[in-house]
Amino acid sequence: MIDMMLNSEVLASMIRIATPLTLAALGCLMCQRAGIFNIAIEGFMLFGAFFGIVGVMFTGGNVWIGMALSMVAGTILAALFGLVIIRFHANMIISGIAINLLSLGLTSYLLRAVFDVQGSIRALNIEKLSPVNIPFLDAIPVIGPALNGQSIITYLSILLVILVQIFLFRTKQGLNIRAVGESEDAARTAGVSPETVKWFVVLFSGLICGLAGAYLSTTIVSEFTENMVQGRGFNAFTAVVFGNAHPIAVWAVTLLFGFADAVGIQIELLGTGIPPSVVKMFPFILAIVALTLSSGIQKFKRDGRSLRSLSIKTLKIKETKSEEEE
Amino acid sequence: MTNWINAKAIKASSFIVIKQIALILAALLFATIFLKASQFEAWAIVNGIKTSLTTDLAGTIRWATPLILAGLAISITFKAQVFNLGVDGQLYMGAAAATVVALALPNQNGVLSLTLVFVAAMIAGAVFALIPALLKVYFDTNEVVSTLLLNFIALLYMEYLVTGPLRDPDASTNLNASQALPENTWLPRLDYFEPSAANVGIYIAIAMAILISFVYYRTKLGYEIKLVGSNPRMATYGGMMPKRTTIKVMAISGALAGIIGAIEVTAIQHKLLAGFNPGYGFDGIVVSLLANNNPVGVIFSGLFFGSLKNAGINMERFTDVPSAVTEVVMAIIILTISAEILMPKIIKRIKISKKNKAHRQEVSQND
C-alpha cells in the first residue's frame, strides 16, 4: 500500500499538481502579509487560464506568448480588484467573490464571442514546453526522478518560493509589506505609503496567479474549460492560512494538497472500488482539517496565555479581598 | 406627519431605492455597450428583461423563488457580520435529504409528507451550516474559507449519491439521477402559469421574507443579530453572547438554503439530479447587497435578478447571445455596491462644497 503511494510516479504528479497551487499561494501570501484577504485569486487564475489559451491560439501555438498574455490579463483583473478595495475601501471578501463571478462570466462570454464555441476549447496547434532534464537529479533515489523532467514553470515556482522568502524577510521592501500588514497607521508614520504597498502586492498576485492559470490550461492540459480552476484558488488560500503566510511552510502545504490529489488519481487508476467522487473529496476535507488545526492551535495558545493572566489576576483580587476582610 | 411614520427613515430608504435603480441602469448600460462592442445584438439584455417582466413572467417567478431565499439566507448572516458563502453546499444537502425522505415515505397524505420533506431539508441544511459555525466558535476557523471548501464537499457528496446509493437502476447509462419522487410529494405548480415551472415556492419565499423581517424588527433575536453585527463588544457588555448568535444565524441561514434545495427537487426536477444548481449561493450575495440586507427589499431584488436570469436563459435559447453576460452584470453590480462608487462620493462632495460655501459666507460676513 505504502509502496503504491510513495513511488516516484505519484511524487512526480504531486509536484506537477502542486505547481499552480504554489504559484497562486505565493501571490495570496504576499497579500496576506500586507493585510489583504485575497480570495479573488480563483478568478485571477481562471482569467489566466483563458488568456493563456487565447495567446496560444492566436500565435500558432507559442506557449510563451500565451503565458505572457495570461500574466498581463491576470494583472489587469487584479488592478480592478485593487481599485475597488484600495481606492474605494470595499469589503475584500465581497469584492473577491464579485471578481470571481466576473472572471467566470467574462471567460464564458468571451469563449462564445471570440471562438464561437461553448463549454471548452482545445488548442490543437499547441507546442508544449518540453520537460527539463537535469541529469544529476536522477542519482537521488525516489525524489530525484520525481523532481526531474518537470516543466520549467515548476522549477520557476520553487525558485520563486525562495525568492519570496528572501524578499519578505531580508529586504526593506519586504519589511514594509509586513509592517503594513501589522499596522497601517504605524507604517504610515514611519513614512511607508500603505496604498503603494497594497497596490504592489495585489498586482503581483494577479501576475503570478495569471501564470498559475496558464500553467493549468497550457501545460497540464491543452484546453480551456469553463470554470476549470475548480476551487484551486480556495485551496491555495487555505494553504496560505495553514502555512501561516510563511513561504516555505506554505509551499510544503501545497505539496501536501498536491499529494492528496495525486494519491486520489492513483486510487482511481487502480480501481479499488472507492467511488471517484469520494476520492475527490479528500483534498477538500484535508484542507478543512488543516485550517481548523492551525486556527485551533493559535486560539488555544492565545487562550492559554489569557487564562493564565486571568487566573493570576483573580488570585490577586481574592488576596486583596481577604486582606481587607482581616 | 403622524407619529408612527418616521419621515427620516422613509426618506433614507427611498434614497437607497433610487440609488440602487440608478446602479442597475448603469450596469445594464455597460452590458449593452459590451454586447454592442462584441457584435451581438445590443439591446438583447434589455429586451430580455422586458420579456421576462411581461410575457414570460412565469420564468421570472421560477428563478426568483430560489434567489429570494438565497438572498434571505445571505442577508441574515451579513447583518450579524458572519459570511456564509456555503449556501450552495447547504442547498445540496437539503436537496439530498428531501429526496431521501420523499423516496422513503409511504404513499400517504400529500400535505403531511410534503411538510416532512421540507423539515428534513431544513434540518439537513442547518446541520451542514453548523459545521463551519461550530468550527468558527470553538477553533476560530475562518468561516469564509471553510464554507467555500464545504461547498465542494457537498457537491461531490451529491455526485456520489446520484451515481451510487440513490441512482435510479432503470435510468439510461449516461444520466446520473435518482428515482422520480412519488407524486404526492410534488410541490404544486401555479395553475395560472401552466405549463411552466413557476410554483408555490414563491409563496414560501415571500412568507419567509416576511417572517425574517418580523424576526429582525419584533423579536429579541433580531435585536441581538443587529447589535452583534454592528458592535459585538457592546453586545457582550449587554449580556449577549455573540458566539451563540453566530451559531443561531448560521443555522437559520442553512435552513433557508435547505428550503431552496427542497423546492428545486420537489417542484422542478422531481428527482435528485447531479449538478442542478446554477450557483444560487453567490447570486444570493448580489440579491442581498442590492436590497441593502433588508428582507422585504430582498423580495424585489430577487424578482429583478430572477428576471435577469430568465432573460439570460431565454437569450441563450432563442438568440446567439451567451447568458454569461448576466453574470457580468451581476459582478458589476456587486463591485459598484461594495465600493460605493456611484453615489456617496458625489454626495460627500456636494456636502463638502456646501459646507465650504457656508463657511466662506460666514467669513465674508465677519469681515
How does this model look, in words?
The complex is a heterodimer of chains A (326) and B (367). The longest helix of chain A has 50 residues, at 276-325. Chain A is an all-alpha fold and 326 residues long. Chain A has helices spanning 2-5, 8-33, 41-58, 63-87, 92-115, 143-147, 152-170, 172-182, 184-189, 194-220, 232-242, 247-270, 276-325, and strands at 120-122, 223-225. Chain A is globular. In chain A, helix 3 (41-58) runs antiparallel to helix 4 (63-87) and helix 11 (232-242) packs across helix 12. A two-stranded antiparallel sheet of chain A has the order 1-2. The radius of gyration of chain B is 23 Å and the shape is globular. In chain B, helix 4 packs across helix 11 (280-290). Chain B contains 14 helices and no strands. Helices cover 74% and strands 0% of the residues of chain B. Chain B is an all-alpha fold.
Count of helix runs of chain B: 14
Largest sheet of chain A: 2 strands, antiparallel
Poorly predicted spans of chain B: none
Shape of chain B: globular
Proportion of beta-strand residues of chain B: under 5%
- Which sequence of SSEs, written as H and E, runs from N to C of chain A? HHHHHEHHHHHEHHH
Structure in a nutshell:
The complex is a heterodimer of chains A (326) and B (367). Chain A is mostly helical and 326 residues long.
Which short descriptors sum up this protein?
heterodimer; A: 326 residues; mainly alpha; globular; B: 367 residues; 14 helices
What's the layout of helices and strands?
The complex is a heterodimer of chains A (326) and B (367).
Chain A: H1 2-5, H2 8-33, H3 41-58, H4 63-87, H5 92-115, E1 120-122, H6 143-147, H7 152-170, H8 172-182, H9 184-189, H10 194-220, E2 223-225, H11 232-242, H12 247-270, H13 276-325
Antiparallel strand pairs in A: 1-2
Helix pairs in contact in A: 2-7, 2-10, 2-11, 2-12, 3-4, 3-5, 3-10, 3-11, 4-5, 4-10, 7-8, 11-12, 11-13, 12-13
Chain B: H1 7-37, H2 44-53, H3 57-79, H4 87-104, H5 110-139, H6 143-163, H7 201-218, H8 220-230, H9 232-237, H10 242-269, H11 280-290, H12 295-318, H13 324-339, H14 344-366
